Amino acid sequence: MKNQMRDILTNGQFRVNGSLWLEGNGTRFFGPGPVELLQRIEETGSINQAAKKMGMSYKKAWEIVNRLNEIVGSPLVVTATGGEKGGGSSISDDAKQLIEWYLSLRERFRKFMEEESLKLTV
């Protein structure tokens, strides 16, 4: 089978590719978009500003934040209302750990795809 597959794939340049998402309750909820949103919330201190930097509506950003908080079962985004400077948002330590774990997983996934792609050219 290996030789047959290699013979089939020698006619062009092929590579292994894919996306990496976490699912919970049968729903994709954590991948590149939500990770970037959380990182930008941390950077800006604002869901609204994070959404703007991503070219995303505030409503869509809130939907993502609510889905993350609901599926994970603990707040990944913490909001504060009012005050002298208005409200703001931050990400929890759980969110920071989840981002770090996901980025590490994504790097391992990238290496796996790269290694498998090299096998197609042999």
Automatic annotation (TrEMBL):
Gene3D superfamilies: Winged helix-like DNA-binding domain superfamily/Winged helix DNA-binding domain. Transmembrane segments: none annotated. InterPro entries: LysR_HTH_N, Molybdate_resp_trans_reg, WH-like_DNA-bd_sf, WH_DNA-bd_sf. It comes from the Bacteria. GO terms for molecular function: DNA-binding transcription factor activity. SUPFAM superfamilies: Winged helix' DNA-binding domain. Residues 36-82 form the HTH lysR-type domain. Pfam families: HTH_1. This is ModE family transcriptional regulator. It comes from Niastella yeongjuensis.
